[in-house]
Design goal:
The chain is built from seven helices and seven strands; from the N terminus they run αααββββαβαβαβα. With 191 residues, the chain is α+β, with helices and mostly antiparallel strands. The strands form two sheets. Strands 5-2-3-6-7 form a five-stranded mixed β-sheet, sandwiched between helices. A hairpin with a 5-residue loop joins strand 2 and strand 3.
């Protein structure tokens, strides 16, 4: 990851520990700055990466027109940019291929790349839809994210069972009837 400054992160974590009244050098905390830096390097590995590169080259359909392709229950994690706390969830992606399709394993890579940066769930949903629409040259795209945010479940209102659902649709799947059909096929009862 370009721009990742481990010593600066470690110093900042030590400062936070001191600022809350802890001794960053006490046993149990002495390696915390390094561990947090390791976690941040992983959490933010998508910074500077192009999600379209993860799709690779779409493969021609060879004279056939594919109908809807749906990938359900793609697990993801991201970090809320407001509180720097994780949010975890599942993504459901549907697309109508144009003349080409993308490898099914490539769509989760797009999601992982976009999620591995400070995010808002609403923006993440839109970015996934845009990436698949453009990178796959899709006639239509529908993305549904369902996630639990630790900023809601562990602080403030502490709503431990709540989740947030966001939807983005493009092209032919933005039409209300097509959108409703795909949401029903996803089988989660969200609309």
């Amino acid at each position: 990851m370009t721009g990742f400054d481990r010593p600066r992160i470690e110093a900042a974590v030590a400062e936070i520990l001191a600022a809350i009244g802890e001794d960053p050098s006490r046993p149990g905390l002495e390696t915390t700055p390094s561990r947090v830096a390791d976690a941040y390097e992983e959490f933010f590995a998508g910074l500077g990466k192009d999600p379209l590169a993860e799709l690779g080259e779409p493969v021609p359909l060879e004279g056939h027109e594919a109908e809807t392709v749906i990938l359900r229950d793609i697990q993801f994690r991201s970090v809320c940019e407001h509180h720097l706390l994780p949010f975890l969830g599942v993504a459901h992606v549907a697309y109508l291929p144009g003349e080409r399709v993308v490898g099914l394993g490539r769509i989760p890579r797009v999601i992982e790349t976009l999620a591995a940066r400070p995010q808002l769930q609403e923006r993440l949903t839109e970015q996934i839809a845009d990436s698949i629409e453009h990178g796959a040259q899709a006639r239509g795209v529908l993305v549904v994210l369902d996630a639990q945010h630790e900023c809601v479940t562990t602080r403030g209102a502490r709503q431990t069972e709540s989740s947030t659902v966001t939807i983005a649709s493009r092209g032919e799947l933005a039409e209300p009837a097509a959108r409703a059909e795909i949401v029903a096929l996803i089988g989660r009862g969200v609309a």
